Amino acid sequence: MVRSPRFLRPHTIIVRNHVGENEDGEEQLIDTTVGRVKFDGTYGITQSSRGITSSDTVVVVIDMHDYQSDKTYSKKLTDPSTQFTFATNDLIVYEGDTYMINQIKEISPRGTDPDFIEVYAS
User: What is the pLDDT of residues 52-83, one digit of tens each?
Assistant: First the structure.
């Protein structure tokens, strides 16, 4: 089992999963706190001969064998009280800033279950 050192993953995020709408037509979100992740806000910054350009893209790396949450990860959200997921258009909150998930990349070097998940958001 591949595991990354915890000192490389000192951050905590909140994942806001869309779980439908209430009777008034307002969308409902379920918050899940996930710790021991790596949040990289400098992912979208590039340097060239013209200077530094920045996009609002961030990346969050989650070690699926060593994250900290009171819920378990599931590829498909079936029970929001015990599970969370990373899905396109769900939200990530880090230090008060909210980002919308654009892409999810599962890294599975040995088998079908992911060892790491990279979440790209802006």
Answer: 666 779 999 999 999 999 999 999 999 999 99
Sequence letter at residue 111: G
Domain boundaries, the chain: 6-121
pTM: 0.87
Q: Both tokens of residue 28?
A: 């409902």
Strands (E), 1-122: 11-21, 27-40, 45-48, 51-54, 58-63, 72-73, 83-84, 91-94, 97-107, 116-121
**Torsion over CA of 121, 64, 79 and 58, rounded to 10 degrees?**
-10
Cα torsion at 3, 65, 67, 69 (round to 10°)?
Answer: -170
What tokens were used for 43?
A: 């992912």
